[in-house]
C-alpha cells in the first residue's frame, strides 16, 4: 500500500510528459484510453495534464490534498496505478514525442475532453495589400464563407459591409462609390456610409414618415471593422464585437516596421481549403521540390532537398513559436500566429547586418478556397525594390508575376491532396495523423499546426451558419486551376493596368505592321524594302508581347516536364 501511495504523487510529472508526447503505438493508445474511459478520476487527470501543456510546457502536477488514503483504494485505483506506472516506464525508456518523428505528433485530445474555445470570427484577417486596391470601385470578397464588400472614400478611409442591400438584398458589390464617398446600390440608388448607416433613399418622400426612413435601424447595412497595418487591409468578421476589435492588434511582423526596411506584397486566391493552405505555408521542407526551378531556380531546386532541424519551442491557443537551426549562423525564427499568419525571420550570412523576413497569410474565404498573401521584406538592396518613386525601376506587377510563378508550383498538388485526405479521415478530421506518414523532423511544423487545429480550432474552420462546408468538385483542367486572371489580375490594379498597356501596345504594333506593309506595296521600289522590314519588326514585337499578355491569364506549371 505504501508503494501505491508513492505512485500517486511521484509519477504525476511523468504522466504529464507521457501524455504530452509518449510515442505509443496505436494499439497501446487504444488500450490506455479505452480501459479507463469510464473513470472520472482519469478524465480529471487528463484535464490537468492538458492544462499543464497548453503552451508546450511540462508542468509537474501536484496531487490533491483531498485524495483518499491508501486504505480506500479499490480495483479502479489499482488500474489507475498500473496506468501511471506504465507511463512512468515509457518516459524512462525515452519514448518522448520531442525526440521521435513528427508522425507521433497525433493530437492527444481525447474524445471526452472538449477543446479550448477559439472563436474564428473574432480575429483579424488580411484581405489585400492596399497598394493593389482599386479605390474607384467596390471590392467584393468572402470571409469565413460570408460575402462582404469593401470600398474607399475620397479621404482614403476603407469600409466594409455585408454584400446585401437592406432594401431588397441586391449585392452592393455591383454598385459604385458615389460623389460623397458612400457605397451606392445600383438597383434603386440607396447609399451607405462607412459605418453602415443609410445616407440616401431616392424613393423616400422628403416629408412625413418616409423622410425618417434613413434613420431607421432596418435601413442600415451591416458594417464590419477594418484596419490597415503594414500596408495590408484587415477585416474583423464579427459585427457584434467592434470594441474587442479595437483592442486587438492585427497579426503583423514588428521587424518589418524597422528603419531601412522595404517590403513587397502580393496575393492570390487558390482552390484549396484554409487548413491545406496553412499547412503548406508552415512547411519549409517542400520548397526545393514543389517549387523546383521557379524563376530560374532562385526559389528552389529539387536537388537541394534535405533534412531540416526544426524545433517547436512553445505551443498554445495563440499558435506556436519555433526555430530552424543552421550549421552556420543563428537559427531562423518561425512564428505561427493563429489563425492566419506564418512568418520566417532570418539573417543573411554573406551580407553584413542583412536581415529579411517572409510573412505569409492564409485567409479562409470559402470551403475549398483561400486567399494567400505573401510579404517579402528586407533591410538591404533597397534600391532594387519596386514602388512609385522615380528610382524604383522594378515594376510592382513584375514582382507579382514572379510570386505567382511560385504559387503555381504546388497549387495542383494541394488541390488533390485535400480531397484524398477527406476520403481517408472519412468525416473525422482529428484522425489526420493516421492518414499521414511523417517520419522526418522536417514535418514538425505540420504536426504542430494540425495539433493546434484539432486542439483549439475545432478541427476545421468556423464557417458562418448556412455555409455549405463540402469541398467543391475536383478541378481537372490546369487552365482553370492556375488561372491568374480570375485569382489575381482582375483584383489587382497594377497587374490589370499593365495588362491593358500590353494589349494596347500590341494593337498599335500590329496596326503599324499592316500600315507599313500597305505603304511598301504602293511606294516605289527604293522605299519598299524599308517598309517591309519595318512591318516585319513591328509584327514580331507584337507577337512577342502576346507571351507577356498570356502571363496575366495563365502560365502553367508541369513538374513532369521541367528538367
Automatic annotation (TrEMBL):
Localization in the cell: Plastid, Chloroplast
UniProt keyword list: 2Fe-2S, Chloroplast, Iron, Iron-sulfur, Membrane, Metal-binding, Plastid, Transit peptide, Transmembrane, Transmembrane helix
One Pfam family matching this protein: Rieske
SUPFAM superfamilies: Bet v1-like, ISP domain
Transmembrane segments: 504-522, 529-549
Any one cellular-component term (Gene Ontology): chloroplast
Residues in Rieske domain copies: 124-206
Molecular-function annotations in GO: 2 iron, 2 sulfur cluster binding; metal ion binding
Main location group: plastid
Highest taxon in the source lineage: Eukaryota
Protein name, as recorded: Rieske domain-containing protein
Lineage start: Eukaryota, Viridiplantae, Streptophyta, Embryophyta, Marchantiophyta
